[in-house]
Amino acid sequence: MNSHAGSSRASAVAHANFALVKYWGKRDAVLNLPDVGSISITLDALWTRTRVAIDPALEHDRFELDGRTDGVGGDRVCTLLARMRELAGSAARARVSSTNNFPTGAGLASSASGFAALVTAADRAYGLGLPPERLSALARIGSGSAARSIFGGYVEMHRGMRADGSDSVAAPLAEAEDWPLEVVIAVSDRRRKSVGSTEGMQRTAATSPFYSAWVANQPADLARAREAIAARDFEALAEVSEASALAMHGLAMSARPGLLYFNAATMECLHRIRQLRAEGVAVFFTVDAGPQVKAICGPAAADAVAAALAGVPGVTEILRSGLGAGAACVDRETARPT
Ligand code: DP6
User: Fold this and answer.
1) 205 and 106 inside one domain
2) 163 CB-contact burial (10 Å; exposed 0-12 / middle 13-18 / buried 19+)
3) Which residue, by CA, sits nearest to atom 8 of ligand 1?
4) Host domain of residue 13
């Protein structure tokens, strides 16, 4: 093994993504292989910027998130860096510093943008030059949803069949510009969730009597969403996305002990969004492992949706985003793509 002559560094930006057809459940916890495929949209307004600096003088990898060195996820960062070092034939450790422009671990997909940015920067810093599908497979080891943030726009994560995970990767379905939907996020609790996605889905798979039905139903929902995206059929995408989000939460509630990610404001937002749609507004919801509600809407509806959700008791903040690009290396000073 080389010990990496000289130090090399790179910075990358990756955006958060929200699943419309949800990932919930693993078939292999070590390689982090999903039990179901998923379909997501990548956002442009929520991002992680990560810098990887190789330093042969270090004994261990160092990881800093938003200026803190005690951050959650440090073990996964080290596991991923060890794999990338192996591919590069290098023994040199790295200093990783990462910034999120949104709350970490509150159901806003910080692990997705975080690990996608990490593998993209580490790929450049270690001189690997891997293609996007290989970066997607590596990001998946950090977090299943991160495999999708390698790509922009509309993205499908494939469950895959192989035991080594080489076909458990994401691939683009359509570009952001092909169908420029908008996302309005109603934040009602910025705190880190009490049961993270990894633990939540493991508990669900181990204890829910409905887990096998969830897995069996997923291919049909994926097909519906794929078709809706190809046809730009908003109603069809709304129907399958809300069904998938509610099924995931119903499933999580059926774990023992049951997982409750909703608060009162979450429920109120879901009713508001259904009401708006009944009045003819092009909007639907999705919710991840936290109480924030994500309303996906046509650009013409975004102002009305934001105003309606801002008026829901318990909603403390509204974030807005368009759809965005995949992960890319950037200049650290100018943040321009390199
Ligand atoms: C509810 O990707 O965070 O957001 O693979 O264990 O890191 P790990 O889980 P993670 O789970 C995401 C769950 C979800 C749904 C989704 O994004 O598909």
Assistant:
1) no
2) exposed
3) 143
4) 9-175+331-337
Tell which one of 168, 183, 197 to mutate to probe ligand 1, the residue whose CB is within 8 A of the most ligand atoms: 197
The pLDDT of residue 140 is above 50: yes
Checking if the pLDDT of 4 tops 60, the result is no
Residue 33 has pLDDT above 90, yes or no: yes
Q: Which atom in ligand 1 lies closest to the alpha carbon of residue 288?
A: 1
Atom of ligand 1 nearest to the CA of 22: 18
Residue nearest to atom 11 of ligand 1 (CA): 197
Claim to verify: residue 74 and residue 220 sit in the same structural domain: no
Cβ(35) – ligand 1 distance below 6 Å:
no
Confidence of residue 6 (pLDDT cuts 50, 70, 90): very low
> In this predicted model, what pLDDT tens digit does every residue of 64-107 receive, in sequence order?
988 888 655 678 999 999 999 999 999 999 999 999 988 666 66
258 secondary structure, DSSP code = P
Q: Is the beta carbon of 288 within 6 A of some atom in ligand 1?
A: yes
CB atoms within 10 A of CB 155: 25
How many CA atoms lie less than 13 Å away from 205 in the CB half-sphere?
Answer: 17
Domain count for the chain:
2
* CATH number of 240's domain: 3.30.70.890
52: left (phi over 0), alpha (psi -120 to 50) or beta: beta
pLDDT at 1: 44
Residue 3 phi/psi, 5-degree rounding, is: -110, 35
Q: Is residue 1, in this structure, part of any structural domain at all?
A: no
- Residue 5 pLDDT > 50, yes or no? no
For the chain, give me the number of helices (H) and strands (E)? 8, 13
Residue 92 lies inside a defined structural domain of this protein = yes
User: Tokens representing 142?
Assistant: 């950090």
Residue 3 domain flag: no
User: Does 98 sit in the ligand 1 pocket, CB within 6 Å?
Assistant: no
Task: Check whether residue 101 and residue 54 sit in a common domain.
Answer: yes
| Interval 229-241: pLDDT, tens | 999 999 999 999 9
Ligand 1 center–CA 25 separation, angstroms: 9
Residue 283 and residue 239 share a domain? yes
- Whose CA is closest to atom 12 on ligand 1? 145
pLDDT grade, residue 40 (50/70/90)?
very high
Distance from Cα 69 to the centre of ligand 1, integer Å = 23
